[in-house]
Deoxyribose-phosphate aldolase (Carassius auratus), 318 residues
Amino acid sequence: MSARNPGMHLDLEWVSKVRVNTQAVLKRAQQIQGRKVAKKQWQAAWLLKAVTCIDLTTLAGDDTPSNVHRLCMKATQPIRHDLLKSMDMHNKGITTAAVCVYPSRVADAVKSLKAANSSLPVASVATGFPAGQTPLKTRLAEVQMAVEDGATEIDIVINRTLALTGQWGALYDEIRQFREACGDAHMKTILAVGELGTFTNVYKASLVSMMAGSDFIKTSTGKETVNATYPIAIVMVRAIRDYFLRTGYKVGFKPAGGIRTAQESVVWLTLMKEELGDEWLNSHLFRLGASSLLADIERQIYHYVTGRYPAYHELPMA
């Protein structure tokens, strides 16, 4: 695994010079969406790769210890054992990348995974998710409590007000403090791109987040009206590439919100491969934030193995 991004001083000159060519971004996004899907024999391999990059997520008001437990069990065995066996993939340790829950449910998830003898990471959203509109003091306390309860990854949300009003210095300082509160836990920074207004703002927020020491940048909370779109992703991964070329540090990317079909997951992998290269095609540097995506991938793998689609009751609930 590459060295963690330590961050750097806030380079406001770099930030202020950013201009994004909207037409070029939209054209590139269309190209990637128009790519032919992998040939049949490779399709299953791409889908299994996608499974290993999923942050299997439940972020609902009615989350309980029992549905968090079920989520954890699904994460440790995401694809039915007999289906994996028929592809000779049953002993390759295929799991999702992590489970992602609210701070109050971290202890439940840690307990379930421990009981299942699994070392799967638990990610927690924090910092006043999803709006980020709570006092800084409580946002920092939330991070610390999630880490104390056993979360090894923290998905923080930025304060969009600071980004929209161009207060990049203040945004940098806040994210820096979140990174400190995370300690050894990896920090994914959610930009809530649907609320940032322009591609240029998305790029600037991406840069500032990386300068402040983010391990990943993530598109959305999944609670905004606009979530992970391909054009926005192009803007964010180009920022990741520029940051890497300037500093030598690789920052991960996580699209989240509205990613529901197996085919979309392959488009996301293609985007990463073409824009950032094979080094980013693993769970250390790429995650898919999703709750219903896994069910569709399992359906498609069932079809790949048996030649037919499963009846509703044939696959365990995702």
Summary: The chain has a mean pLDDT of 96.
